[in-house]
């Protein structure tokens, strides 16, 4: 129950941070904010302060920052529609920026207990896999796998797990950059004391570096960049059909996952390790929200930025303004579709939990 409560609070914090990004930039850039709300649905609490109404609502699955003239020109000189394109862009980007910043801050805070970091190097070769003469040498530091940069130890493992039986590698060997193309490192099924496992026969992370303040900051930035890349990989898998609708999770499924992760980790490694895992997942979700919100999909911030760019191009070509009603119509239809998708995912989450 503790970890489920943490997960619910986690969503509230991430939503609040996202909407606060819109809120503070709108205030700073002279846009009137009519309401700042955390959550959706029935109002649990509300307060009017100045020109802005603040509210907390029942369902922790969303939130909003209602700007004056957000959908149409209301004649107010402080309306969103009356502001310049660059001001609008900053306000729309601010939500995702705050989510990304939150993820990076969490990662940095989680690194405080770290004493050292594993380097993505070849530590050796497992017996029985026949890859000792594949072209790699003990001490080689991975720089890229199939064209994707390797920044952390987990990068090397993740990218090698995604690769096929042949892989293109770039490594650093004795201070020099070595390119290894079409390296044959097949997955092989081997019996072990723990059961059947699939491995490539490589041991990783034989070297470490001390976790100084500078190293923690750099590695936290690398970790955040790696999370962004993982989101893009996941989107690519979804488009290619490598994952299906049944693999999608919404707030209900994520809360369940956080609860299971916390409980299972606590039973094997203790409460401290469980909290670390839960907050690391929170950082990943924060980065995920930042990326997903910037996709050029109507009803999301990225879709609104797309229409903003489209409006600038239309104005330069035709010398006329693009009628906001077209954007509003598209956003309304897509928002209804998005609500339908969220409802379907929620049903799928409930069925999966049951």
From TrEMBL:
The keyword Coiled coil does not apply. Keywords: Hydrolase, Membrane, Metalloprotease, Protease, Transmembrane, Transmembrane helix, Zinc. It is found in: Membrane. Its cofactor is Zn(2+). It is a multi-pass membrane protein. The keyword Amino-acid biosynthesis does not apply. One of its GO terms (cellular component) is membrane. One of its GO terms (biological process) is proteolysis. CDD domains: S2P-M50_PDZ_RseP-like (cd06163). InterPro entries: PDZ (IPR001478), PDZ_6 (IPR041489), PDZ_sf (IPR036034), Pept_M50_Zn (IPR004387), Peptidase_M50 (IPR008915). Residues 135-175 form the PDZ domain. It comes from the Bacteria. It holds the Pfam family Peptidase_M50. One of its GO terms (molecular function) is metalloendopeptidase activity. PROSITE patterns: PDZ. SUPFAM superfamilies: PDZ domain-like (SSF50156). The chain crosses the membrane at residues 6-30, 90-112, 273-295, 302-318, 330-351. Belongs to the peptidase M50B family. This is M50 family metallopeptidase. It comes from Candidatus Flavonifractor intestinipullorum.
């Amino acid at each position: 129950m503790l970890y489920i409560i943490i997960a619910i609070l986690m969503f509230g914090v991430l939503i609040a941070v996202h909407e606060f990004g819109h809120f503070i930039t709108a205030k700073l850039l002279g846009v009137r904010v009519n309401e700042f709300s955390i959550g959706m649905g029935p109002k649990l609490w509300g307060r009017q302060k100045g020109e802005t109404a603040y509210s907390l609502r029942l369902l922790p699955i969303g939130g909003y920052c209602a700007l004056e003239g957000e959908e149409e020109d209301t004649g107010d000189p402080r309306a969103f529609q009356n502001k310049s394109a660059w001001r609008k862009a900053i306000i729309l980007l601010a939500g995702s920026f705050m989510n990304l910043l939150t993820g990076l801050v969490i990662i940095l805070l989680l690194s405080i207990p770290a004493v050292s970091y594993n380097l993505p190097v070849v530590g050796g070769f497992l017996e029985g896999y026949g890859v000792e003469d594949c072209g790699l040498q003990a001490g080689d530091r991975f720089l890229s796998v199939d064209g994707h940069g390797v920044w952390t130890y987990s990068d090397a493992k993740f990218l090698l797990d995604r690769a096929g039986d042949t892989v293109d590698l770039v490594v650093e060997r004795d201070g020099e950059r070595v390119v290894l193309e079409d390296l044959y490192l097949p997955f092989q099924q081997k019996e072990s004391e723990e059961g059947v496992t699939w491995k490539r026969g490589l041991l990783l992370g034989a070297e470490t570096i001390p976790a100084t303040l500078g190293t923690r900051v750099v590695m936290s930035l690398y970790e955040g960049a790696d999370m962004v890349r993982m989101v893009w990989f996941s989107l690519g898998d979804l488009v290619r059909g490598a994952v299906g609708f049944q693999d999608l999770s919404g707030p209900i499924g994520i809360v369940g996952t956080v609860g299971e992760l916390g409980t299972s980790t606590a039973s094997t490694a203790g409460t401290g390790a469980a909290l670390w895992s839960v907050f690391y997942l929170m950082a990943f979700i924060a980065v995920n929200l930042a990326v997903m919100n910037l996709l050029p999909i109507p009803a999301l911030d990225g879709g609104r930025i797309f229409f903003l760019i489209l409006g600038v191009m239309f104005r330069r070509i035709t010398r006329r303004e693009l009628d906001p009603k077209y954007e509003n119509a598209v956003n309304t239809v897509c928002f209804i579709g998005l609500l339908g998708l969220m409802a379907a995912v929620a049903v799928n989450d409930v069925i999966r939990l049951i």
